Amino acid sequence: MPTRWKPNVTVAAVIEQDGRFLLVEEQTDDGLKLNNPAGHLDPGESPEDGCIRETLEETAHAFTPTALLGVYMARSAEQPDVTYMRFAFTGELGAREAGRALDEGIVRTLWMTVDEIRASVARHRSPLLLRCIEDYLAGKRNPLTLIHTEDGVRQLR
Q1: Strands 20-28 and 16-17: what pairing?
Q2: Confidence (pLDDT) at 151
Q3: How many angstroms separate the CA atoms of 133 and 150, rounded?
Q4: How far is it, in rounded angstroms, from Cα 72 to Cα 84?
Q5: pLDDT at 79
Q6: Residue 4: what pLDDT?
Q7: Cα separation, 86 vs 60, whole angstroms
């Protein structure tokens, strides 16, 4: 029987305040790269819960998703045989958790304008970074009710 193909499911937050977007600068095998606060969905999580967790881990800020920007697929430049399926959310940025260390590999958070982000494409960890921001700027917003997570999924924790 052939091996089933399975994408790596990730979540990302697109957070804008005063014309700037919250990004993370992270250490990769290819040097320092920029990304939305993002990461892999863990067992037992809904996509919304995963995005809340990843945003907190990578930025030390609370985050409340209010809309689904979209679901995106991309291949990894670092591993061409890996495909990522990203659930991207926008929402409300909460308070910073004082004293909280950023996730391993995250060097810092930074706020950038869309023009600065467009000018730094060579430093993007994923082509989805800019695509999600462009969709945000185009006004794409989908209700969170598009995603349904059965209760049994949460029992995997």
Answers
A1: antiparallel
A2: 86
A3: 29
A4: 8
A5: 75
A6: 83
A7: 21
94 and 4 Cβ atoms separated by less than 8 Å: no
Nearest one of 102, 87, 100, 111 to 38, comparing CA atoms: 87
Count Cβ atoms within 10 A of the Cβ of residue 150 and give its class: 0-12 exposed, 13-18 middle, 19 or more buried: exposed
Contact between residue 144 and residue 68 where contact means Cβ atoms under 8 Å apart? yes
- Please name the residues in contact with 153: beta carbons below 8 A apart, sequence gap of 6 or more: 44, 45, 46
pLDDT at 157: 60
- Output the pLDDT for position 156: 66
pLDDT at 154: 75
Q: What is the pLDDT of residue 153?
A: 80
SS3 percent helix, strand, coil of the chain, rounded to 5, is: 25, 40, 35
Q: Report d(CA 10, CA 55) in Å as an integer.
A: 12
pLDDT beneath 70, residues of the chain: 156-157
Phi, psi of 142 (to 5 degrees): -120, 145
The two tokens of residue 33 are 């790269």
